[in-house]
Amino acid sequence: MVLILETGGVSERLRVRAIDDDEGQRLVRIIRRGSGSVVAWRRAQMVLLSAQGMDVAAIAKVAFTSEDRVGGVIRNFSADGFSSLYPRYQGGRPPKFGLPQRREIKKIAKSRPGEHDLPFSTWSLSKLAEFLVAEGVVDDISHEGLRVLLREEGVTFQRLKTWKTSKDPDYAAKKARIEQLYAIAGGEVVPEPGEPEVVFCVDDEFGPLNLQPRPGRQWAAVSGKGKEPGRAPRRRMRATYTRTAGVRHLFAAYELGEDKLSGHIKPRKTRARFLEFCRYLRSLYPPATRIAIICDNFSPHLTTQRDGRAGAWAAANNVEIAYTPTNSSWLNRVPEAQFTALRYFALDGTDHASHRQQASMIRRYIIWRNNHACDERLRQVVTRANVA
Q1: 3-state secondary structure of 76
Q2: Same domain, yes or no, for 328 and 370?
Q3: How far does Cα 14 stand from its chain's mean position?
Q4: Structural contact between residues 218 and 235, judged by C-beta atoms closer than 8 angstroms
Q5: In what order do the strands lie in the sheet with 291-295?
Q6: Closest Cα to residue 281, out of 297, 262, 257, 303?
Q7: Residues 183 and 320 reside in one and the same domain
Q8: Cα 170 to the center of its chain, rounded Å
Q9: What is the CATH classification number for the domain harbouring 272?
């Protein structure tokens, strides 16, 4: 008797046994459900691809695993049916992942799939769990178990943000000056003679302010099946298609040392309007008190060869205007955090009929905010905006 060993072509001829419609639909349900055991999901995928006529080598490429593993799954299913898809655990508590496993899972989750030669732009829980099992990092892990583990490790699924690097040649000097002014305002350093004693952060990027319905929330009676008979309809907001009342702009200043917000609403953002607002800030303190105004390099704020009014006014009124570097307005502490709180408390869910009415609402909010600077909810909104 002569034993002949076949060295090639075996994997191509291996195919799962014939399956009926019910078995095929069950395999599809396991794959589409996307929950439960990742091992069962991967095995069902391999079996279904084989039933569809795909050879073992092609299945191994799709499943990112070896041909031997694919062959074993197909043989086991042909012999034992669906029971072979589910891993045979010994019972007891769910497995606990050690520190090395947690570190590796966290490292892979924070990487990009392309770094592992995968044709995906980002990880989903199912793809990440499948990859961890395929790479032998864990024997098995459910999608929910993976999500909980990642949250415990401080990793969550977040939206990508853009970042623009400043090309300002004086970036380091401008940034250092602004940080020094922040240190003076916070009492971290004692101002030297000639240094500002009061620091304002000024911004005029909140707007333009239209007269339009703004999305928000309200307390209202239950509707649907629990609706009370004869109840009046809930308050609704109008829809707008044309807005003919023009726009307004909010010039805002945040005084760091006193934690106070100031604001003026102007019809335009021009150099003249900017200087009007600066004169108001100057009037809050005696002329002998030197103040600093931190703002971005928006053209109406600058001193140029054609228009030197801003620089001339600052020199004549004991004021320093410190500009943030180009594309680095994030150094200014007034914009997003304070504006987010203003939008949350004063504008969300409103539909003002006139600019006068809307401006009155904003002014009254600023007064309330300065009188309740330690309000817990206000602090939460500002803190969340700063972190974001």
Answers
A1: helix
A2: yes
A3: 48
A4: yes
A5: 260-266, 248-255, 198-209, 291-295, 319-323
A6: 262
A7: yes
A8: 30
A9: 3.30.420.10
Taking the C-alpha atoms of residue 141 and residue 128, their distance in angstroms, rounded to an integer, is: 10
Give, for all 388 residues of the chain, the pLDDT tens digit. 333 334 444 445 788 888 888 888 888 888 877 666 778 888 888 898 888 888 888 888 888 788 888 998 999 998 888 888 887 765 666 667 888 899 999 999 999 999 988 888 999 888 898 899 888 888 888 888 888 899 988 898 888 877 778 888 999 999 999 999 999 988 888 888 889 999 999 988 777 888 888 888 878 777 767 677 777 777 777 777 677 788 898 999 999 888 899 999 998 888 999 999 999 999 999 999 999 999 988 888 888 878 889 999 999 999 999 999 988 888 888 767 788 888 888 888 888 888 999 999 999 999 999 998 888 888 888 877 765 5
CA distances from 260 to 6, 196, 197, 274, 382 (A): 84, 17, 15, 19, 13
Q: Is 260 left (phi over 0), alpha (psi -120 to 50) or beta?
A: beta
Q: The tokens of 201 are what?
A: 């952060």
Query: Is the CB of residue 129 less than 8 Å from the CB of residue 38?
Result: yes
Q: How far apart are CA 324 and CA 339, in angstroms?
A: 19
Q: How far apart are CA 44 and CA 50, in angstroms?
A: 10
Beta-carbon count within 10 A of 196 CB: 20
CA distance 44 to 27: 6
Range of the domain at 198: 171-211+245-387
* 146 inside domain: yes
Of 339, 346, 385, the closest CA to residue 365 belongs to 346
CA distance 324 to 308: 19
How many domains does the structure of the chain reveal?
3
Asked if residue 56 belongs to a domain, the reply is yes
8 Å CB contact between 358 and 267: no
Q: 3-state SS string over 194-230? A: CCCCEEEEEEEEEEEECCCCCCCCCCCCCCHHHCCCC
